Amino acid sequence: MVQKLTSEERATQIAALQGWQATTGREAIQRQFKFADFNEAFGFMTRVAIKAQEMDHHPEWFNVYNKVEITLSTHEAGGLTERDIKLATFIDSITA
């Protein structure tokens, strides 16, 4: 079973990410992205979807036109895990 990060690990890991914030009311991280248009946003989502499928770890997300909001949490662990950090790090790498 996947283990949740401790409070200290969570704080350290989130601080190392680019623009991710802890969500209020649950152990998860969230980030919003804005792109030039829908095609760019959809292309980004496609790249994330391919990686998420490879990792067997799927984000919660919301898309309207050029905006994408992503929330990461590991449901089976009941909170934030190393899987979430790895996916967030990948997402950061394709938006830099």
Helical region count?
3
The chain-level structural class is alpha+beta
Q: Which band does the percent of strand residues land in? A: 15-25%
The overall pLDDT average reads 94
Give the total of beta strands: 4
> What is the domain total for the residues?
1
| CATH 4th-level superfamily | Transcriptional coactivator/pterin dehydratase
Low-pLDDT regions: none
Give the topology string: H per helix, E per strand: HEEHEEH
Major beta sheet, strand line-up: 1-2-4-3
What integer value in Å does the Rg equal?
A: 13 Å
CATH C-level class: Alpha Beta
Distance between the termini: 32 Å
Strand count, sense and closure of the main sheet? 4 strands, antiparallel
Level of helix content? 40-55%
The 3D shape can be described as globular
Assembly form of the protein: single chain
CATH architecture: 2-Layer Sandwich
Could you say what the CATH topology is called? Answer: Gyrase A, domain 2
Write out key terms for the chains shown.
4 strands, four-stranded antiparallel beta sheet, alpha+beta, Gyrase A, domain 2, 96 residues
Detailed description of the structure:
The structure is a single chain. With 96 residues, this protein is of the alpha+beta class. It is 44% helix and 20% strand. The protein has a single domain (7-13, 34-95), classed as Transcriptional coactivator/pterin dehydratase (Gyrase A, domain 2, 2-Layer Sandwich), CATH 3.30.1360. Strands 1-2-4-3 form a four-stranded antiparallel beta sheet, covered by helices on one side.
